[in-house]
Design goal:
Length: 440
């Protein structure tokens, strides 16, 4: 049975910040919002309590679902700042009911009401202080309809300088309710609501601490320097930056986990998907602190290895006349070139994969991703095009039982000087080298 792991209107280029990694750890904008889970190993006294009625915030539990264990723990332990900031317009009322935050992240809990609220949803929310953008990256978000009202949450990673943020403005576009509001072609912008929200920046500022930075973890000879390490009761934030002297392009680190220790108790967490990503040479991780463990005595970062290729092997050369492809890093790569329409050609690349690498939704291997432009033998650059049927610019597949992956590329027909060279942005070449790094 074929399992399609990724379909995209256009693959993003390497180093795009946000949430692509083909449902993997690192991702391109908007590719997915996967469940955030951790693997706690804590004593009975430290385990998060069984879900309880959180009063005014109970309706938000369904919206959060299994997406974010930290938010669920915050509801259970009452670590929510109650708010009551609201605005009305165009038949809708937006009420920001609560905030869950630390100095690096902010989650807003909101209620949207009105006669047609059950057919609406918020999306593309922005935060500003004056004219200054406050959001470094978007996190997870979701909403549900209960009794004709929309109950939702939206998470954001703040700029590091915004730890003391108190009052800020919220711009909340209201869209028609679709599976992916604000992004689906059928999702219509209904109105935009704006309001000021005031939070107490000191309420959850205790027990936060900087961890050691400047040290280096070396994986298969490739150096990654710790440029950010910060611990809060909600999450631990770690950023690794690849050294410029590295001989390999690192697509991702795999088997990553973080262990917090305090008074003989250990909690092990895996990176939170949807907010852990690759941005150029930076590898940005957020680890959920599901037990809300405070002021840990020890913090240990672990990786099983890297997924990488030599920097001089990041090219795939396609000869459309011969129907061959040459990629030294992918010796089993094959291609079939055929007509997609009278004006468009289609190149279907196949390569071998290990199905076992795609079994863990928390640590999926990359798929082969090629660039959205190519260079002919004369040095002239050309862009790939959308499939004639309008289905997208490219596809990446993994086969659940056949050990094969597929990448499809469309390009305009023409007399190109051969061969055509594509950049390789991702490929599941796993290199084991388990290492630990003490951050505290």
């Amino acid at each position: 049975m074929r399992k399609r792991l990724q379909t995209a209107k256009r693959f993003a280029g390497a180093g795009t910040a946000a949430v692509l990694a083909s449902s993997m750890l690192f991702a391109a904008p908007g590719a997915f919002a996967a469940s955030a889970q951790s693997v706690p190993a804590v004593s009975a006294s430290e385990k998060a309590p069984v879900a309880k009625d959180t009063g005014a915030f109970e309706n938000f539990r369904k919206a959060i679902g299994q997406d974010d264990a930290v938010l669920t723990a915050a509801l259970d332990k009452g670590s929510v700042e109650a708010l009551n900031d609201s605005v009305s317009g165009s038949g809708y009322t937006l009420n920001v009911k609560g905030a869950i935050r630390d100095s690096r992240s902010l989650t807003l809990l909101y209620e949207l009401s009105g006669d047609n609220a059950d057919k609406a949803a918020l999306s593309r929310i922005s935060l500003k202080e004056g004219g200054r953008e406050l959001v470094k990256s978007q996190g997870l978000s979701n909403s549900t309809v209960i009794g004709g009202k929309v109950y939702g949450y939206a998470s954001f990673r703040l700029a590091e300088s915004d730890g003391t943020l108190g009052t800020f403005s919220v711009t909340a576009p209201v869209y028609s309710r679709t599976p992916n509001p604000g992004y689906d072609p059928t999702s219509k912008l209904l109105t935009t609501l704006k309001l000021d929200v005031q939070t107490d920046p000191t309420k959850f500022g205790q027990h936060e601490s900087s961890l050691k930075t400047g040290q280096t973890i070396t994986l298969d000879g490739q150096k990654l320097n710790v440029t950010e390490a910060y611990s809060t009761p909600l999450r631990t934030y770690v950023t690794l930056t690849a050294d410029k002297s590295n001989s390999k392009e690192i697509f991702r680190l795999y088997g990553v986990k973080l262990t917090l220790g305090k008074d003989g108790v250990e909690q092990t967490a895996r990176p939170q998907l949807g907010v852990s990503y690759n941005d150029g040479s930076d590898y940005i991780f957020e680890f959920p602190n599901e037990a809300l463990l405070t002021e840990p005595d020890s913090v240990v970062f672990h990786a099983d290895g890297i997924e990488a290729l030599d920097k001089d092997q990041l090219k795939a050369k396609l000869d459309t006349k011969k129907g061959t492809v040459d990629a030294p890093a992918i010796p089993d790569l094959k291609v079939k070139v055929e007509d997609a329409s009278k004006d468009v050609s289609k190149a279907t690349f196949t390569y071998k994969v290990d199905p076992a690498l795609y079994e863990d939704p928390q640590d999926l291997a990359s798929q082969l991703v090629l660039g959205t432009e190519f260079t002919d033998a004369s040095g002239k650059k050309h862009k790939t095009v959308e499939a004639p049927d309008g289905s997208g610019f490219g596809y990446s597949y993994s086969y659940g039982d056949s050990e094969e992956g597929i990448v499809t590329v469309y390009f305009k027909k023409g007399s190109y000087p051969q061969p055509l060279t594509f950049d390789i942005y991702m490929y599941p070449n796993l290199i084991p080298d388990a290492q630990n790094l003490d951050l505290k």
